[in-house]
Amino acid sequence: MPPPRLARSLLLAFVPHARRAEIDGDLLEGFRARVERDGAAAARRWYWQQLCTTDLLRLRALHGGRRVPDMTGGNGMMLQDLRFAARSLARSRLYTLAVVAVLAIGIGAVTAVFTLVHSVLLRPLPYRDADRLVMAFRTVPRLGFTRSTVSYPDYRDWRALPVFEDLAAYANAERTYHGPDGAESWRGVAVTGNLLPMLGAGARTGRAIVATDGRPDATPIVVLSHRTWQRSFGGNPDAIGRPVRLGEVAVTVIGVMPPAFDFPNGDLDFWVPLPDALSTPRDQNFLSVVGRLSPGVTPAVAQRELAAFAGRVDSTSADGNRGYGVFVEPRHAFAVRNVRSALIAFQLTVLLVLALACGGVANLMLSRGLSRRREMAVRTALGATRGRLLRHLMTESTVLAVAGGVLGVMLSTVLCRLVVAFGANQLPRLHEIRLDAAVLAAATAVTLLAALVCGLAPALQLGRTSLVMSMRLRGDSAVRARRYRLQDGLVVVQLALSVVLLVSAALVGRSFLRLTAIAPGFDPEGVVAGRVAYRASPQDTGLAGRDRFFEELTRRVGALPGVTVAGLTFSLPFSEQWFSTQMLPEDAPGRVDDAPAIKGSVVDGAYFSAIGMPLVRGRAFGPDDRAGAPRALIVSRSLAERFWPGQDPIGQRVRDDETDRLTVVGVVGDVHQSSLAEEPAPMYYVPLTQAGSWASVLFVVARSAADPAPLVPLIRSELRAINPALPLTQVATAGALIDRTIAAPRFRALTFTVLGAFAVLLAVAGIYGIVSLGVAERTREIGVRLALGAERGRVIAMVVGRGMRLSLAGVGLGVVGAVAATRTLESLLFGVTARDLPTFAAASAALLVVAVAASYLPARRASRVDPLVSLREG
Amino acid sequence: MSLFVHRPAPLGSLQQLVLLVTLRLGEDAYGAAIQRELEQLTGRRLSIATVYVTMERLEAQGLARSWLGPSTPERGGKAKRYYAVTTRGTQALRRARTELQRAWAGLDSHPAFGSR
Q1: Which pLDDT does position A332 carry in this prediction?
Q2: Which helix (H) or strand (E) is B85 found in, with range?
Q3: pTM value > 0.80
Q4: CA distances from A360 to A95, A109, A353, A693 (A)
Q5: Each residue of A154-167: pLDDT tens digit?
Q6: pLDDT tens-digit profile of A553-602?
Q7: Which residues of chain A does B32 touch, with a Cβ-Cβ cutoff of 8 Å?
Q8: Distance between CA A865 and CA A147 in Å, rounded?
Q9: Do A30 and B30 make contact, defined as CB atoms within 8 angstroms?
Q10: Angle between helix A837-863 and A792-821 (nearest 10)
Q11: Considering Cα of A599, then A600, then A601, then A607, what sign does the dihedral take?
């Protein structure tokens, strides 16, 4: 393994040319020895530590001194400027630290967020001609489906339309892999043979799926994801050509995709070919369709063509395709649909932070410039030209900006890693995130801009300084007033920006708190669940076999130590799996076919107590609800209220087609089914014993009196004891399920809080700085006032008053800005509006209080001025 | 015109260590080896830049000398800079040891160091 590239190039940039080769070699040798001895991480750390020494500069000076003996030439001048800048910066260490830290944080945050936005939103997808790739969906307005899957006959027909250069389809596939360590569940997709070639995706090893693989006579094959190849085959190339057992059949591994290949999403284990000629009917919709538009065709045109075609099929075909529409969406928009608004809000926020950082640095530099007027005047008097002084100042700010920029880029790599670590489930295209050349260029541009902005301000002031005035008149109020105006303006803008950030952070934070305060509708404490896909075995066939299997499973799991109750459900909260059925109260008018769809689940009698859902009325399912008995139904409270407002729902009947009736036997509480932010949807529940064979993939849910995590291996072994071929998948505690749904809001709240805190810190530092400076400049005046009998309280009021006026102006401006800016946040908010008055009031008040406190400190100092001392020294 | 008889500056402790390690390593004294040997002997983790700065100052004082060896493939084809201690270097070391020994003399029974 090579040493860290960035560290190496930085080192080599410092090391004098005459020693470059041998030091490079020494470091490589040392690095390799350490990799052997302490491991790669320790070796990389060691390599970085080699950078952290001033001896690098000394070494350079030892050689540089010999190489550039003449200090008066153009080169020497620059070197002299640099040395001078370094010396004067070293003298005021606190100031240097502050400027570099502020710049580093600003640039680091901007680079990190820009990297994210660039990787996720801006960079084209890593496929051939990615800009012409589109997704084609069926929509069912009646059921509220906007992106629904497509049937095979539809796909075949669409493919023949000329708007597409090529059209491919894929379907989710889950297979049980029987490896040496037992059965595990693999997730993959079945793809049409033209899909991978259309994307321009080749295999990393072996070959990818091609058109002929879908033929009926083709041998069954599988292509593995890089991750799965590493995990299950140790990355062994011999795996290619080997047969593996996937589900019921033996298939041959023909290739491994590159690690970055993630179509249609990450976390896949395999790709298999979809058979060419499927005989599935037009009402069996299971395909996702992706295509490349013909040159010149827009998604809107394609959508129109497809819709027209669908209309024709509608009127001519008899096989059930009534009332659907078509939606064509660019693949890129589809991939980022959930994060786009959040990322844009982030980007705007971070630009604000950068503006704040630049403002803060400018303010620091202005203050320093003011306090150095005398030095500048003396140097001018001694013959320094104005150009020389300007150059000196520019050199100083460039040194600061470069230091801040380098630290900022380092910080941003750390931040990016943090984002990748924390945001793993929230962001698409995550593995594509890396600092690339474009982002580095952007960061460099930002750095240079910051240097220019910050360096220019004092340089301009310097230009206006009259020599005599600077040396003699320190307290002249006319000169002072003009000079302060720029700084006052900066502080006001800083305060305004931090109000915007603080309000945004407070809104996002409150949304998060609101979200966590929501009761999910069940009791997650002590609950663990896992998914089992039942398959009939020779001794256990048919519906009775399924019921026996699941009954045995819950009996065994329920008997595990610590488990109080175990139940079964088709639809676990937040599992994104449920049935949708159209149903109506028995006596309601209209056809079931026109009724809205209700979400439903299949459960056993113990499920509600296992997950901790309250039974509001009636009873849970029992042994009487067996196959053949009258069909029983349990409804959620909100469904009961919708169907039978003000009536007792028990004993009511619903129809889910034109012949059959179900009788309500119980009412349970509402549950947040897909996310905490959405209102709980009305739900119905039917007993497993009365459900058809399609209900064979169920979650087993166990409630334990203690920590449920240690139960997982026990549940696995019980399952293995009943049927060793079935894996337990999607294992999670109920707490983890909830955590997962609030991870994204939590991440946002955290980020905004950090940014908001940073903004407030900057603003406070700004106001403290400018008020302190004002006090320092007016020491003499204050001394005179005190000598003439002014009360100390009045001096304090005078100084604080100035800070107060600035704060009020800044906060006022900020509130206006926040009203405009928080609108971009709207999609991220929950339970608060973008113009929530209490939030605005609290944020403004908090900032005012802090700002006044920040100006009180210098005011107190001013009131303690000793008139004698100040007059003598002034 | 100097009022003082010229005498080389006394060796710093790091300089002494580096010179001693260079002597120990003999024909195999180059940057990485010195760095490694120093760490193994004393536990001090010096950066490679520190080793080179120290060496170059010793060279400038005439206490050590260096030359570029042939390039070797196992370190990316990069040449090694070999160091050796000059006669003046060994003299300086000897002097430093004498100074230290004199200063230490008799202190073994001092309560701060004496064995109990």
Answers
A1: 85
A2: strand B79-85
A3: no
A4: 12, 15, 10, 67
A5: 888 888 888 899 99
A6: 999 999 999 899 999 999 998 877 778 788 888 888 887 777 778 888 99
A7: 25-27, 29-30, 33
A8: 73
A9: no
A10: 150
A11: positive
Q: Angle formed by the axes of helices A437-464 and A340-371, to 10°?
A: 30
Cis peptide before A264 (omega within 30 of 0): yes
Name the residue of chain A whose CA is nearest to B51's CA: A55
A454 HSE (CA, 13 A, CB side): 33
Q: What are phi and psi of B2, to 5 degrees?
A: -95, 140
**Residues on B contacting A at a C-beta cutoff of 8 Å:** 30-32, 35-36, 45, 47-50, 52-53, 56-57, 68, 72, 74-81
- Burial class from Cβ neighbours inside 10 Å (0-12, 13-18, 19+) for residue A643 reads buried
> Could you tell me where the beta strands, DSSP code E, fall in A294-374?
325-330
The 10s digit of each residue's pLDDT in A31-58 is: 988 898 888 888 998 998 888 777 887 8
Distance separating alpha carbons of residues A332 and A121, to the nearest angstrom? 8
Q: How far, in Å, are A435, A471, A797, A856 from residue A783 at the CA level?
A: 56, 20, 15, 18
**DSSP conformation letters of A610-657:** HHT--EEEE----TTS-TTSPPEEEEEHHHHHHHSTTS--TT-EEESS
Give A25's contacts in chain B (Cβ within 8 Å).
31-32, 72, 75-80
| A682 close to A669: Cβ distance less than 8 angstroms | no
ipTM: 0.87
CB A479 within 8 A of CB A469: yes
Of chain A, the percentage scoring pLDDT greater than 90 comes to 16
The residue to which tokens 């920590």 are assigned: A707
Residue-wise pLDDT for A366-405, tens only, equals 777 666 767 777 777 787 777 777 777 778 888 888 888 8
Task: Name the residue with higher pLDDT: B79 or A565.
Answer: A565
On the question of pLDDT at B2 being above 70, the answer is: no
Q: What is the pLDDT of residue A447?
A: 67
Least confident interval from A33-42, A192-201, A571-580, A726-735: A571-580
Chain-chain contact of B50 with A55 (C-beta, under 8 angstroms): yes
**What pLDDT is recorded for position B1?**
42
Tell me how many degrees the CA angle A619-A624-A627 measures, rounded to the nearest 5.
120
- The answer to whether A148 and A472 have CB atoms below 8 angstroms apart is no
A19, A30, A32 ranked by CB distance to B52: nearest: A19
From chain A, the residues in CB contact with B68 under 8 A are: 22
Q: State which residue of chain B sits closest to A59, comparing Cα positions.
A: B53
Of the candidates A223, A284, A285, the one whose C-alpha atom is nearest the C-alpha of residue A251 is A223
